[in-house]
Specification:
By secondary structure, this protein is of the alpha+beta class. The protein has two domains: 28-50 and 178-375, Naphthalene 1,2-dioxygenase Alpha Subunit, Chain A, domain 1, CATH 3.90.380.10; 54-162, Rieske Iron-sulfur Protein. It contains twelve helices and 18 strands. The chain has helices at residues 33-36, 38-49, 139-142, 172-176, 178-185, 206-212, 219-222, 227-233, 255-261, 264-267, 315-345, 361-375, and strands spanning 28-31, 54-58, 68-73, 76-82, 88-92, 113-114, 121-122, 128-130, 149-155, 158-162, 193-202, 237-241, 244-250, 268-274, 278-282, 286-296, 299-308, 353-356. It has a seven-stranded antiparallel β-sheet with strand order 11-17-16-15-14-13-12, with helices on both faces. Strand 9 and strand 10 (158-162) form a beta hairpin. The longest helix has 31 residues, at 315-345. The chain binds FE2/S2 (inorganic) cluster and fe (ii) ion. Fe (ii) ion is lined by residues 218, 222-223, 331, 335. FE2/S2 (inorganic) cluster (FES) binds at residues 95, 97-98, 100, 115, 117-120.
Length: 376
Amino acid sequence: MVFVPTRGDAPLRHGEGVPLLPEGAQAADLDASVYLEPERFERERTKVLNRSWQIVCRSSEIAESGDHVVWEGQGETIVVTRRRDGGVAGFHNVCMHRGARIVKESGKGARRFSCRWHNWTYDHEGNVIGVPDREDFCPAQLEGLASPAVECDEWGGWVWAVLAGPGVAPPLREWLGPELVADLGAYRMEDMLLIEKLTWELEVNWKAVVDGFNENYHAPALHKVPAQDAKDGRESTFAYLGPHGMMVVPYKGVLPKLKETRDHQSLAICHYTVFPTAVFNNNPSHVQLFRVVPLAVDRTRFETWELQYDPKGDTEYLDGVTKHWERLKVVVAEDVEIYGEVSAARRSSAYSKNRLNDHECKITHFHEVVQRMLDA
Ligand code: FES
Ligand SMILES: [Fe+2]
């Protein structure tokens, strides 16, 4: 039997007694400068992105000791490895000698890492363990030397990291919060298989990409959703979960059943924005991660990761989920295409602000959290 997620004891997210919008949600304007200022992007890197838990890779990509992933984005390069004790460790991929990148590519089973330039070597935690001609250095230069640590942990079958290092952000589960852990956790992503990963490079600010996946207002126009489904879509619910957010979008034709059973996991697209750069699009039979990697103020890598359950020989499941994923790829391509239009108009003298409605409240909330971290 292929696993089917259900609500279980998790809180109700749809139906009688559950408001469509979070308390205080209202229409609001957002200044265009938040997407355009290079100086602001620099502050976002250090005060928001580097200080938040973000997804690096699937746990299965570094299954064995010494398996490692080189992750690069937001001007940073890091190495995340599987330690001998089974945990995960990470460090900045920068040689403490003269600043070259230590590890060029992801790989398997490394016992140590060596910088190609002068052969300084590092252990899995980034400690400097070998320096040729050590006696030519002053001992104080090398004592206890390590490349700065990245805090790492795992949840949901994902490896997460805080680039600013240990103790900067709350522990991962605390950062996610009990509501998100319960709701998103119901899908058991740790048991899912990575099927495909698509990547695009977009000429827009990273926040504009997150915004695009933080509302379903665009669905009738951009994705040409039929009128009845668009009407049902008006009964989507939106919620803030600490810095994160979620929305529950009823599946085609299931609204009466959803109202009756109130099992949002099995009858709706549940959509989780995990601040700051991850959006999970959860269908009952498969999950997409939309992962935004900021590169520069106006350049963003956008990734879509497709996860499916182990079909365990169930060809009906496999056929259904494969067909649905093929259709979804078309939908995601429509989302991606629109960033060309956004990019074309970004520098226009006529672009001064976004005018957001109350159903775009998750966008407003997201930008408020960014601003709060910048002001902290
Ligand atoms: S820069 Fe890495 S060993 Fe010299
Ligand atoms: Fe879309």
